[in-house]
Amino acid sequence: MAVREQPTPAGPPRSSHAGGHTEIRIRVDDTDHRVVVDNRTTVLDLLREELGVTAPKKGCDHGQCGACTVLLDGRRVVTCLALAVAYDGAVIVTAAGLGDRDALHPLARAFVEHDGFQCGYCTPGQICSAVGMLDELKAGAPSYVTEDISRAPEFTDAEIRERLSGNLCRCGAYANIVAAVKAVGR
């Protein structure tokens, strides 16, 4: 039986420590971090427990609710399913990194203006997902409900609802969330 060599991973070499720990570098909301993580640590647990970044929430811990959604290298990702060691060198933007109290991100402002939240637990994930969704639409990426995938998708309520379907709101503010996204995406 022949033994096949595994290809060497691209990127800088990682420092692996005894006990299944790896040193990674990660940028979160414009702050660089260098941290040793257990190889089983999710990005969500790294953010909340190691780095004290609490905008992403732990809802289901199964990738089904979207409360932990952030922008990871510009794409929306549910962080409860993403292992931190896989994202060495990554850039993460949470809802907190999209703006601040004095300069709200346009989507955060629209959520306020359109009552796009009630309890607010899902709001950081909803906002990050909406930012990612708008970027996908601008890039022409089709969704399940895009009628003609040979053309750029239209900015419709159906597109917004489909693209945000991975983010649950137990308070049921969906109509207002769609209105907020629609106001910004025009």
Describe this structure in words.
The protein folds into 2 domains: 19-96, Ubiquitin-like (UB roll) (Roll); 106-185, DNA polymerase, domain 1 (Orthogonal Bundle). Strands 1, 2, 3, 4, 5 and 6 form a 6-stranded mixed β-sheet that branches. It has helices spanning 43-50, 106-113, 123-139, 157-163, 174-185; strands at residues 15-17, 21-28, 31-38, 69-72, 75-78, 91-93. Helix 2 crosses helix 5 (174-185). The chain is 28% helix and 16% strand. Strand 4 and strand 5 (75-78) form a beta hairpin.
SSE inventory with pairings:
Elements: E1 15-17, E2 21-28, E3 31-38, H1 43-50, E4 69-72, E5 75-78, E6 91-93, H2 106-113, H3 123-139, H4 157-163, H5 174-185
Parallel strand pairs: 2-6
Antiparallel strand pairs: 1-2, 2-3, 4-5, 4-6
Helix pairs in contact: 2-5
Region (Disordered): 1-21
Organism: Mycobacterium lentiflavum
Keywords: 2Fe-2S, Iron, Iron-sulfur, Metal-binding, Oxidoreductase
Measured as a percent range, the helix fraction is: 25-40%
* Coarse shape: globular
CATH homologous superfamily heading of the largest domain: [2Fe-2S]-binding domain
Provide a count of the helices: 5
Radius of gyration: 18 Å
N-to-C span: 60 Å
| Binned strand content | 15-25%
Largest sheet: 6 strands, mixed
* CATH architecture type of the largest domain: Orthogonal Bundle
CATH class membership of the largest domain: Mainly Alpha
Q: What is the total number of structural domains?
A: 2
Query: Low-confidence stretches at least 5 residues in length (pLDDT < 50)?
Result: 1-8
Region (Disordered): 1-21
Pfam families: Fer2, Fer2_2
Protein name: 2Fe-2S iron-sulfur cluster binding domain-containing protein
Keywords: 2Fe-2S, Iron, Iron-sulfur, Metal-binding, Oxidoreductase
